[in-house]
Amino acid sequence: MTFILFILSNLLRQKIRTGLTVLGISIGITTVVALGIFVNSAKAATEELILAGGADFTVAEAGVADMTFSSLTTEDLALLETYDEIEHVSGVELAISKVGANAYFFQIGIDAGDLPFFDAPLVEGRLFGADATDEIMIGDRAADQLDAGIGGTVEIRDIPFTVVGIYDTGTTSLDAGAILPLAAVQEYDSREGLVTLAYVTVRDGTDIDALTDRIKAENEGLATLAGIDDVGAVDQGIEILDAVNLGITILAVFIGGIAVMNTMAMAVFERTREFGILRALGWRTRRILQMVLGESLLLCLFAAVFGSILAVILTQLIVLFPTVSAFITPQYTLDVFLRGLAVGIGVALLGAIYPAFRAARLSPAQAIRYE
Prior knowledge:
This protein is an alpha+beta fold. It has 13 helices and 12 strands.
């Protein structure tokens, strides 16, 4: 019998205890992995939003607690247009409303004249007209969810809009939402003369990093967003999610470590005579340590695999809800599962330290006499 099979057989002696311990640890790992998936998904969705329509970068009001609270004036947009490197600036108003079963239906208000600079490929229909106030373009996902087609009606804030186009941008929130005339969104959102963001397109050969740094340096009230790392300047939500994720990870390691320590300590106490016999047969202290740590590690590796599988199943079930699927698509990145594995290893080491050293310090005579 190999050493690993010997360790496995030790765990299988107490199947119920081992199973319950694996289940308890796997729940913690499921939480860590699932939360990590949603944090990464939220980051990806936010990055998609700030670079929507093929924008090279986005400008928002600096210092706001949430990006949707940003307010830019026509003067801010005109100021951006004075930069020679900038080809076009599109002011957009973001809004969220309950439409159908989706309580967070996403809307972008934009001038018809800016639509040629906003990449929203039509799969059916046309762009809304320059003077239109009651026309709407919806994403293909929104069309499916609302069962709305060209010529149909979508009601937002008790205002009916006629669907004239269906688009597919590949961006979750946009494709589950709609693009409307800017004036219409500003009116029902009571934001006349203001926009939430400015989508900026630069000329070929422009150093985007240098330009965004210059805009921030010359305009204290503006924040430039070229990627997810810049979002903290206008939205604290992502930073809060990261902090919550870290806190839950630490908590999972601590609680899981206690569970493993309890299991391994009981196993060590029950097998005291066995350890004495093994020591009498010539097993060294290091070998005893390896056995107990190996049992703990194998236990937690099973939990990490099981917990990760549960996390994937859980996230797939959650995104079945239209409210969730309208905002994010789960991002199953390697780093999330590596974090789950790291939690499992951390739990194994933390929980096995005391039982392993207790087993290793037993003298053969003392252990064999133990009752």
